[in-house]
């Protein structure tokens, strides 16, 4: 009968230990490398142009973006070419308000932002200021004039 020796067994185990440590370290390095990319995928961008009805750009428009769930508000201003951009926007539903001197206020509700998405939301501002309803005090009409004394 042939004798089995355990001489090769411990040597094989000693050879596998460095290999498994290297695989584990490689796995950890891969996770650390991919973690920032996975985090960034949650963020999106909302961008667009601000124009008047003729298509001309509207620079320096005040733009407000509000998350409807959290009421978080972000603000920016359209640049000289009428563009604006909100980077690193979290997923959710937003309301966009645009205001500029000489134009009516623009509001867009229900802007849905998903993971790693770029949403283009242009705003066309109507010229002029919305007329306000006048609130004049009511006066009583007298049916009879007062007699002169």
Structural overview:
Strands 1, 4, 7 and 8 form a four-stranded mixed sheet that branches. Strands 3-2-5-6 form a four-stranded antiparallel sheet, with no helix packed on it. By secondary structure, it is of the alpha/beta class. The longest helix has 33 residues, at 8-40. The termini are far apart. It has a domain at 43-124: Immunoglobulin-like (Sandwich). The protein has one helix at 8-40; strands at residues 44-51, 62-67, 73-77, 83-89, 92-99, 106-113, 118-120, 123-124. The model has no long low-confidence stretch (mean pLDDT 80). The chain is built from one helix and eight strands.
Distance, first to last CA: 148 Å
| CATH fold-level assignment of the domain at 43-124 | Immunoglobulin-like
Annotated CATH homologous superfamily of the domain at 43-124: Immunoglobulins
What fraction, in percent, of the residue positions are helical? 10-25%
E-strand count = 8
Q: How large is the count of helical segments? A: 1
Q: Beta-strand percentage? A: 25-35%
SSE order:
HEEEEEEEE
The CATH class of the domain at 43-124 is: Mainly Beta
Structural class: alpha/beta
Low-confidence stretches: none
CATH architecture classification name of the domain at 43-124: Sandwich
Largest sheet features = 4 strands, mixed
Average pLDDT reading: 80
User: How does the overall form come out from the CA principal axes?
Assistant: elongated
**Rg, please?**
34 Å
Q: What are the key terms here?
A:
alpha/beta, 4-stranded mixed beta sheet, 4-stranded antiparallel beta sheet, elongated
């Amino acid at each position: 009968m042939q004798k089995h020796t355990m001489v090769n067994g411990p040597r094989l185990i000693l050879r596998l230990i460095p290999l498994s440590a290297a695989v584990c370290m490689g796995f950890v390095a891969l996770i650390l490398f991919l973690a920032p990319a996975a985090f960034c995928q949650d963020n999106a961008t909302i961008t667009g142009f601000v124009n008047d009805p003729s298509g001309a750009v509207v620079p320096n428009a005040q733009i407000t973006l509000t998350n409807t769930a959290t009421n978080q508000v972000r603000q920016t201003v359209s640049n000289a070419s009428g563009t604006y951009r909100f980077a690193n926007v979290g997923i959710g539903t937003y309301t966009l308000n645009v205001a500029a001197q000489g134009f009516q206020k623009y509001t867009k509700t229900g802007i849905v932002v998903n993971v790693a998405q770029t949403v283009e939301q242009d705003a066309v501002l109507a010229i002029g200021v919305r007329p306000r309803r006048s609130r004049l005090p009511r006066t009583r009409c007298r049916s009879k004039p007062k007699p002169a004394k």
